[in-house]
């Protein structure tokens, strides 16, 4: 059972190839043991005629396993609706972000440099169709800036609260009244 899926960008397409290695050099073998694999299987739909796939970049062919969820789809024409593709791309991006962030944090904990961590991630995840070093470096920079902004907001709120609690000017005015 094969179905095609259009991926939003080349980096995510490479990452999907890392998650589901190809069975025959081109078709990716999806497994239901992976959370994303379960989503890919669950979103698959059947139709009465062969689907018309447009041409373009980042279209991958997926081989779905024969399991309880797909047993009724055997020997049928399979496709993903436009909504399904958006949802699957968002889920793939979320898995990628979680994997990359966790990998980066572990690398920081082991005292590796930012460039070594990013380079190791690229090599270990086989992100080879383009040079993704700058994209991943910018992604971590933006994430770090967001974290700094969040910490700053929390510190400002805490300082404002403490300032309000410890402000004694209002107490002095109230204590002078007879």
Describe the structure.
It is a single chain. The chain is built from 6 helices and 5 strands; from the N terminus they run βαβαβββαααα. The longest helix has 34 residues, at 133-166. The strands form 2 sheets. Strands 1-4-2 form a 3-stranded mixed sheet, covered by helices on one side. It has a two-stranded antiparallel ribbon with strand order 3-5. It has helices at 10-19, 35-42, 82-109, 114-124, 133-166, 169-175; strands spanning 2-6, 28-29, 45-47, 59-63, 77-79. It has 178 residues and is mainly alpha-helical.
Quick take:
With 178 residues, the protein is mostly helical. The protein has 6 helices and 5 strands.
* Parts with pLDDT < 50 across at least 5 consecutive residues: none
| Average of per-residue pLDDT values | 82
Helix content: 55-70%
Q: Let me know the number of strands.
A: 5
Proportion of residues in extended strands:
5-15%
Count of individual helical segments: 6
Across the major sheet, the strand order is: 1-4-2
Radius of gyration: 25 Å
List keywords for this structure.
55% helix; 178 residues; mainly alpha; three-stranded mixed sheet; two-stranded antiparallel ribbon
SSE topology:
Elements: E1 2-6, H1 10-19, E2 28-29, H2 35-42, E3 45-47, E4 59-63, E5 77-79, H3 82-109, H4 114-124, H5 133-166, H6 169-175
Parallel strand pairs: 2-4
Antiparallel strand pairs: 1-4, 3-5
């Amino acid at each position: 059972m094969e179905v095609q899926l259009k991926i939003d960008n080349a980096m995510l397409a490479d990452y999907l190839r890392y998650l589901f290695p190809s069975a025959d050099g081109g078709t990716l073998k999806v497994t239901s043991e992976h959370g994303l694999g379960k989503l890919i299987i669950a979103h698959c739909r059947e139709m009465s005629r062969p689907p018309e796939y447009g041409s373009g970049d980042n279209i991958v062919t997926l081989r779905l396993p024969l399991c309880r969820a797909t047993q009724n789809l055997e020997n049928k024409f399979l496709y993903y609706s436009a909504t399904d593709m958006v949802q699957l791309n968002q889920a793939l991006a979320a898995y990628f972000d979680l994997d990359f962030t966790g990998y980066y944090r572990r690398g920081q904990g082991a005292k590796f440099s930012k460039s070594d961590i990013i380079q190791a991630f690229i090599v270990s995840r086989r992100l080879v169709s383009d040079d993704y070093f700058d994209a991943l470096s910018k992604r971590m920079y933006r994430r770090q800036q967001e974290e700094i902004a969040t910490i700053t907001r929390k510190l400002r709120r805490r300082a404002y609260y403490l300032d309000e609690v410890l402000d004694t000017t209002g107490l002095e005015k109230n204590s002078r009244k007879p």
